[in-house]
Write a sequence for this structure.
């Protein structure tokens, strides 16, 4: 309040001084009706310099003046979508908002082992939008007795426990067998996952052989892909059997998902959904959005995600929304029009009701093809 009152007082004084100098200048140049001057008298240099100084001061104070919270359509020049994006993920401000976690992450002894809770603190920061994290000069801890060899088959009979640093604080289990017993659908048993993307049970399924047939009929190659929220990497593993390279974005939410992807000979990307995809423009043939992309994502954040997918897809590339979950009314009024903003060709658009649904929940499986340059 005191700063604002001070600025207002300086502005008032500057305006008064400007008016006085202007009156002085006008009074010195008034023409008499009897003897008009042959030439207008020149304004002294020191007055011109003072005017320039006052005007510069006014401009500077105006820039420092705090802006009001009330904005109108006539005064706001910043694009509305840019304002929206700044509220969703303002650059670097998320790290500033969680200074305690960032301080804990950056408190370490250089050239020695990183703190034991580094992974959990890093993931907490990433999930809160603080990404990319600052670089550090410490050594990450590795498993004490890892296996000497790893399988080349992306569907091994089991994953080696010795290659994972099991944390009691972060994980509910200390072995893959425990995770399989607690929830077999998490994907930590690769031998049970081999038919997941090759079988057809209902209209919501899109078997990979059918996907290749669709691409072949459209004379479109499938070589490079991205699986968003891909869990343990089963989709990437299946595509690897067809000589297609797919990288998987995944987080270690309660289980070592990134380690499981890597143990299958695949590439995990430890990035959150709100981050810009770490892929160059127009280079991918396919982007699949798995179970992580669902109605719990705010509609505005989902819109930015879809347009970032559009950025990395090449012309003729495919976006696959696999079992997108929402309420039926939201699909019609919110998500359907949102997806339609991309202007993609609908190759497949299938919906199905959730079993025993009380609130009208439905699933959507959509395969959309990006058109040529607009």
């Amino acid at each position: 309040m005191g700063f604002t009152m001070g600025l207002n007082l300086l502005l008032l004084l500057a305006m008064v001084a400007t008016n006085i100098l202007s009156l002085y200048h006008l009074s010195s140049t008034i023409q008499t009706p009897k003897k008009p001057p042959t030439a207008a008298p020149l304004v002294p240099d020191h007055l011109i310099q003072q005017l320039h100084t006052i005007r510069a001061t006014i401009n500077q104070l105006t820039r420092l003046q705090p802006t009001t919270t009330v904005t109108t359509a006539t005064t706001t020049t910043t694009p509305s979508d840019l304002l929206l994006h700044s509220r969703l993920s303002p650059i670097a401000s998320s790290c500033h908002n969680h200074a305690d976690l960032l301080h804990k992450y950056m408190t370490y002894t250089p050239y020695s082992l990183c703190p034991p809770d580094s992974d959990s603190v890093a993931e907490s920061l990433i999930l809160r939008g603080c990404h990319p994290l600052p670089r550090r000069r410490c050594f990450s801890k590795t498993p004490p007795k890892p296996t000497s060899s790893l399988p080349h088959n992306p569907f091994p009979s089991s994953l080696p426990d010795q290659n994972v640093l099991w944390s009691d604080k972060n994980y509910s289990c200390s072995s893959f067998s425990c995770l399989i017993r607690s929830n077999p659908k998490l994907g930590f048993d690769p031998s049970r996952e081999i038919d997941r993307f090759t079988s057809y049970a209902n209209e919501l399924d899109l078997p990979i052989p059918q996907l290749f047939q669709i691409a072949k009929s459209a004379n479109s190659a499938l070589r490079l892909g991205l699986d968003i929220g891909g869990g343990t990497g089963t989709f990437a593993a299946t595509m690897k059997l067809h000589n297609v390279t797919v990288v998987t974005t995944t987080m270690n939410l309660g289980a070592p998902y990134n380690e499981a992807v890597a143990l299958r000979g695949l590439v995990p990307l430890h990035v959150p959904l709100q981050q810009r995809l770490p892929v160059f423009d127009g280079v991918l043939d396919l982007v699949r959005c798995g179970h992580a992309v669902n109605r719990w994502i705010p509609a505005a954040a989902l819109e930015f995600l879809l347009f970032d997918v559009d950025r990395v897809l090449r012309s003729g590339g495919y976006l696959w929304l696999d079992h997108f979950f929402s309420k039926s009314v939201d699909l019609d009024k919110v998500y359907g029009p949102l997806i339609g903003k991309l202007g993609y060709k609908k190759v497949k658009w299938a919906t199905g009701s959730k079993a025993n649904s009380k609130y009208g929940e439905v699933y959507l499986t959509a395969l959309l093809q990006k058109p040529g340059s607009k």
